[in-house]
Amino acid sequence: MPAGGRAFHVLDIGTQAYGDCLLFESGAAKVLFDGGHKGDDDLIFGQLKQRISQSGNALHVSLLVITHAHGDHIGSLPSLVSQGRLVADWALVADPDYGWGRATADAVTPSDSASDTIRGLLAAVHEEPPPSSYTDGELRQFIADAAGGEDEYKNMLNTLDQNGTHIVRHGRDNEAALLRAFQAIGLDVLGPTKAHLQAAAAEVLSAQNAALAAADAALRSDATGDPVNVLRRLLLQVPATDAMTDALVDAQARNGAAVNCQSTVVTVKAGKWHALLGGDMQFHSSVPTIEPHVRTLRAQLKKAGAFDLFKLSHHGSSNGWDRPLYDEIGKPKYLAISLGLHKGHHPDPSVLTDLQSLTNVTWARSDLNGHVTFTFGPTKITVTKARGKLNDPTPPQPDVAVASTALSRPPASQPSGIAEIVTRAPYGVPVTITVGSGAPQVASREGPPLDAGGPLPPLNLFAGRTLPRLLFVTIRDALADRIGISEPTHALDALRAKGVLLYDELPTGASSRVAEAAVHEQLARARDVHGVVLLGGYSVVPSQRLFCLPPDLQDLVKPEEDAYDSFLVWSDDFYVDMNGDGRAELPITRLPDGRTPELVFAQLQASGQQRSNTLRRTGIRNRERPFADDVFKNVPGTGDMLQSAPATVDAPPHSIDGDLAYLMLHGADLDGTVFFGQFGENGSPDKWPAVAMKNVPAVCGPVVFTGCCWGALITARPANQTPDGVPLGSRTPDQSLALRILRSGATAFVGVTGAHYSPNPPGTYHGGAMHHAFFDYYKVGGSPAEALFAAKADFQNNIPHGQTDPFMAAVDVKIHAEYTCLGLGW
Questions:
Q1: 244-254: buried (b, 16+ CB within 10 Å) or exposed (e) per residue?
Q2: What is the three-class DSSP state of 473?
């Protein structure tokens, strides 16, 4: 944006749930709203420094606004301020006394005299509830962060004061001087009133008192005395009749709503354009004692006039939005939703449905669009985004299915109370699930499955291809849990009619060991089988969470030396390792279900045909992976290799539409929707998005081979973040490039389920050796599944590929284990 321009930025705040971080620019004025999550320091700093001038190591903002006392808004600000990386002329902040339940400065809250354990639990109840899929480690960190939140916030305010910032505590201090200082950008504070804040603080105090007794009783009733177990009971409400849990749930709901309703509501102007920002204010549904004050606030909004841009409150929650509110604020044509990729329960599906029904409205959401910029021009507002599409109504997909796993070292402890929400509808019929506001509502059991209610379209299995004799393996009931009751029967009946060898008699919930033994028995009976096809994701046919550091290297290499995945990956090779010697004896592929029959049917009907008379290849590589150029020369077909950076998702316009596509890029463990190019300039932590959903064509070529970390990960969590018994979740085609590519007709997506390691040129070890071997076998006529099988055998025989360092050998072992073929790659 040119100097003196006007824009509003919704920052990309990564993968954690919820969170706000916004930047408003108007001429020389730079106004920063909130700070995302704790730990987002570098992510936020890297985006801000491109737009805010630095004084030494510090970014200098005109005004810092902290809307309310929740950790997903205070976030990285205490760290940035304490490290001297952020300074501000003015700060309009949430008063900590109100935020932590003190209507008067000398009031006492239950946590002031509580034990450290109770204090931590009460602090966690004070925050937005974390997603129910959090691991024990994540919950423990969540509790620790919450427990230190108030002190860190107060220390930050002290540091700002010492640095000369003019601090205004909303509801305590006179705001007249602040408003005069920012009159040029039309700054106005519409609420809450002092009476509103006092009512909310009283509600926080009341909720904490109720939580104190419930938390104390719940801890004493828990055999471990572990606050993590109590918090997990709170999140999942298991058992539903537990009075102590009910009390904690109620306290959390009232506490969270009361803190949200303290959010400072601000309006700013950029020329003729008018923007409304309200943190997490629950405009639509709040605590009864606060509701009259919220109605007063809404009257103030209506009086303030029509707005052009509105940042939806509370991350698109149903309690922050309703259609009358939209009408009251003048029906703004531009809307924004701020939240991290791990959506938890926001945006609410009902809100997304309502947004879809609006006409001539443009809206963006940072979970799917990354960094979003609204640029205020003379006659229009221009919206740009880092990834995805605008006006995307994709609802959050909370999925906490548990996969059976096997380890070669002792498994982690298992939390109790894991549950999954499952719904079914006819193929092609959209489904909306609305979960009430407040504490998470997780079903302990599911209702009866719904029949499709009509004939399903006939399946053209394999699109006329003649496949070798393969053993298809699935669990019918488990597949029905994923894609509907009629759809699995439709697919399996079609397979049997085609004469394929099908084994679907595994018991539902079978462990990986039980499934392995059953598949081995089937293979022993049918010796003419050329390969195995697993039909369904890990929640249907379990995968193996494999610790792939071999015993002979465990004294020389420690798991933590692999900082990315600790040598833990998902692998299906154990199904075709008949001798237990770590060597697959047959090719194996998996057809993920992605929780949609559309994906399953697309894979079963993939044609494997090239797109034109001339074989085409496409590729894009990280600019610091030159070995990939030599690999690309070995890829059959004509076409050029792009390099990222400078190539991004938009420049030049490109599509991974070759008959063969080769991607050697960065991947992310918790975001499967984008592959990145090299780091930004001058050591910036930013990466360049190189391939995103928009680069996947409606019809893909047959084969995509990747060297992207976690590129073939079909779960919400990588193996090293999924201890035995912990929910792992499964991705959908809207959450995974791999699954989107398969849904678009590819027969094979070949990639890794953990961290990929690249070699230096000429690429004769690590991933480079695997890449070369795959295309060597593919170009002489091997199918993708067979080419990968042969490449893995060659790769395994040549470990450590001339390297002498034990760590290098260990990495090669992992690369061999983690490479997988998704789709019907035969």
A1: bbebbbbbbbb
A2: strand
CB atoms within 10 A of CB 823: 31
10 Å CB burial of residue 416 (0-12, 13-18, 19+) is exposed
Interior/surface letters 332-341, b for 16+ CB within 10 angstroms, e for the rest: bbbbbbbbbb
Distance CA 53, CA 4 (A): 13
Strand partners, 471: 501, 532
DSSP 248-279: HHHHHHHHHHHHHTT--EEEEEETTEEEEE-T
Residue 405, token pair as written in the block: 């796993």
Positions in the chain short of pLDDT 50: 1-3, 223, 237-241, 398-453, 682-685
What local confidence, expressed as pLDDT, does residue 435 receive? 36
Handedness of CA 156, 158, 164, 170 (dihedral sign): positive
Q: Which two tokens stand for residue 514?
A: 């039980």
Give the torsion sign (CA, 411, 412, 418, 420): negative
Which helix (DSSP H) or strand (DSSP E) does residue 444 occupy? none
3-class SS shares of the chain: helix, strand, coil, % to 5: 35, 20, 45
pLDDT in tens, 731-773: 889 889 999 999 999 999 999 999 999 998 888 899 999 999 9
The continuous run of DSSP H or E covering 301 comes out as helix 291-303
Structure tokens at 447: 């209702």
pTM of the model: 0.53
Per-residue pLDDT tens digits for 147-194: 888 889 999 999 999 999 999 999 999 999 999 999 999 999 999 999
Q: β-strand 703-706 against 660-664: which pairing, if any? A: parallel
Q: Kindly state the tokens that stand for 125.
A: 């109840």
The answer to whether 236 touches 400, Cβ cutoff 8 Å, is no
Q: How far apart are CA 196 and CA 292, in angstroms?
A: 9
Cβ(275)–Cβ(309) below 8 Å = yes
